[in-house]
Amino acid sequence: MKPDPATTVTYDVGQPRAFLSTRERGRKVLHDLEDRIPPDASLLVINFANVEAMTVSFTDEFLRKYYSTLATQDDGPACVLVTGLNNDTRETIVIAFERRELIALERLGDDLVPLAASDVLSDTFKLARALGTFTATAVAEKMGISAPNANNRLKRLVAARALVRRRGVAERGGKEFSYSALEL
Amino acid sequence: MLDARGLQWVSPLELAAIVTMGTVADARGREVRLLVPHDPKIASYLVRMNVVELLKPFAEIDGAVPIQERRDHSDKLLEVAEVTPTNIEVVCDRLGLLVTERLGPEAGRAAFDSLAELLNNATTHGYSKTGAFTAAQLYSGTLSRTPGFEFAVCDCGDGIQKVLSSATNQDLEGPAALELALNGGVRRAEGRGHGLPNLWRQAIRGCKGGELMLRSGGAVATAKLRSDPISIYSRVAEPVDGTWAWLRVRVP
């Protein structure tokens, strides 16, 4: 899936050399982010390039809560990326996300990396990118796993807005979901 | 009575603790008296770090207080300051700049993560009407040969035992409560209770190691921060109000 520049939104977190410390600040940034996302946004890029360091408390209140909300609803941006991280801010996100079993997709140069993902989910995401658009059955066959197992993995990547899921019609009739990975 | 006469060495912890104890005593309607250190260098340092200025409005200052021309050392120290939910972000910003500029980006960011979590604790569940006080100092290592950063925050809130006993519905004893707090045994419904355990993981990135001391109620925990951290939990004879936290980070 190629992102449409017209519906891509970039949200810059903090002012230059920002040190983000409190839960209160996390709540404010979360509300600000939510206010700035138009309903038709296809890709949201959350840019941390200005952030020097941030606490787990801030990150939990801001980014973790945003991704937790995304995981429980179908509306909102189809894809979400984080970018501009340094080693510190990346590790802080991993700490905040690991405990909730959440994933955030990071744009790292020309690559996309699922943060706080297990090896199994990272491998599934790599395969998804190689396949482009695919079904859960294709992932199950390629990885030698059961269809429900493939579905569970894809569900988590969709919840993190790392993959886009669309409902279609299967060749033999009936409903079938197809999945697409973001192309940079 | 805050008897500082015999002080030979003083760190941010003692400075913040002196002001905190004086403030709590005053809030309880007790007379407060500071006996100034005999060592003129230490007495001068107490003045430099705002201890006398913060106590003066309500305390009797007993002893010779040096008059000094104050230089700006904001690039290497934070004088004792009250930290509140209103000014915590300003204090964190200042400390963040200080540590990243002087310790380097990696060690500085790691130190910021830890000190900001300690300040968060002091201004949320550790907060009370008598406030919390913080201080910090960077060391060049000229005397100690161990350059690094030292930070302290003392609050007069409920203390770790009370907060954790309430969160777990158990009557936790002092050392056990501190051990639980440091090892992350408490997961509260709203996802909190992770700040202190993360110190183990974060505080020493890019550093040569360090120490964390927590004193709350009648217990004290001392933790050596390193890749294989160790900690000691014990009782103390003199209980304190709230929680005192001290962090020392050494840099290569």
UniProtKB/TrEMBL annotation, chain A:
Name the record gives this protein: Uncharacterized protein
Source species, domain of life: Bacteria
TrEMBL record, chain B:
Domain of life: Bacteria
Protein name: Uncharacterized protein
Organism listed in the record: Micromonospora inaquosa
